[in-house]
Amino acid sequence: MPDFLLNALIAGLTLALVAGPLGSFVVWRRMAYFGDTLSHAALLGVALGLLLNLSPTLAVTAGCLLLAIVLVTLQQRQPLASDTLLGILAPTTLSLGLVVLSFMKDVRIDLMAYLFGDLLAVSNSDLAWIVGGSALVLLALVGLWRPLLAVTVHEELAKVEGLPVAGLRLALMLLIAVVIAVAMKIVGVLLITSLLIIPAAAAQRHARTPEQMALGASVLGLLAVGAGLALSWFQDTPAGPSIVVAAATLFLFGLAIPRRVA
Fold first, then answer.
1. Where exactly are the transmembrane stretches of this chain (predicted)?
2. How many whole angstroms separate alpha carbon 38 and alpha carbon 181?
3. Every domain of the chain and the residues it spans
4. What pLDDT, on a 0 to 100 scale, did the predictor assign at position 1?
5. Rounded to an integer, what distance in angstroms lies between the CA atom of residue 77 and that of residue 105?
6. Which value, in Å, is the radius of gyration of the alpha carbons in the chain?
7. In whole angstroms, what is the distance from residue 167 CA to residue 171 CA?
8. Per CATH, is 3-190 categorized as 1.20.1600.10?
9. Between vectors from CA 139 to CA 162 and to CA 171, what angle results, nearest 5°?
């Protein structure tokens, strides 16, 4: 197997593994729009990284984390509804990133790679970021699984039981921000949340417990990455969109399979 294809496979499988349980929380808490806002802000992080001569990956990670904190703060203090606020910030940050990039005439970048991913161009340094970031998120999810689940099921009851609800909500948003930052290379700014949501939504239909859904989402994500990469390799299609199409196909197959009755 060529080195670039091996890097792509490892990166995609690693992200799919952590996107399963994290995407389950995104589905349960209906945070898809929040993920979209962070993913759109990733392009602004790229632009600022290039402007300040910083590593784009590091700049995107820092930018997503900062925006997650800003969003949490604004949601608590501003009078607008959360979906309205996210609807303002998502296109604004994406457009601002494109405007900043347009001013840098001496910098040449492949904008399509940032928008739709360039999985087959994952370098060893990119792979280190993806594996390291995904490993940290997965470890944090394992440690916070029960408290996060309790807060997701019933926030008021979790607060009565003494759980730090606000801190756990912020922790979940920061974990989403990290995954979005490391996933940009794989499926791009415009398709990141699909890798979080589609496998989790497909697994939800047939899962009987939260753990089954998280595990099923990871398995479906792994299958989508493998099928998408195979399609890209043999049919010369773009890798990121091919993975999303494979995930959507698995979702449709899941809808066709009758749900088990307990």
1. 6-28, 40-73, 85-104, 127-148, 168-201, 213-233, 239-257
2. 9
3. 3-190
4. 63
5. 39
6. 18
7. 6
8. no
9. 45
Angle (nearest 5°) at CA 231 between 138 and 39: 45
Residues 6+ apart with CB under 8 A from 100: 44, 47, 48, 51
31-40 per-position pLDDT tens digit: 878 888 888 8
Distances (CA, A) of 233 to 121, 143, 242, 243: 13, 37, 10, 12
204 three-class SS? helix
CA nearest 150: which of 138, 140, 136, 162?
Answer: 162
Residue 87 · residue 74 · CB < 8 Å: no
How much is the mean pLDDT over the chain? 86
> Scanning the structure block, which residue is given the tokens 């974990």?
175
Distances (CA, A) of 220 to 20, 22, 227: 8, 14, 10
Q: Model's pTM, two decimal places?
A: 0.87
> How confident is the model over 199-238, as pLDDT tens digits?
999 999 889 999 999 999 999 999 999 999 999 989 989 8
Query: Which residues does 191 contact at the CB level (< 8 Å), separation at least 6?
Result: 116, 117, 240, 241, 244
CA distance 21 to 148: 11
Alpha helices by DSSP H, 161-209:
165-187, 192-204
Q: Are 14 and 195 in contact (CB under 8 A)?
A: no
Structure-block tokens of residue 65: 């984390």
CB 239 within 8 A of CB 117: yes
* Calpha distance 53→115 (Å, rounded): 21
Q: How far is CA 190 from CA 4, 10, 261, in A?
A: 23, 22, 37
User: Is the pLDDT score of 257 beyond 70?
Assistant: yes
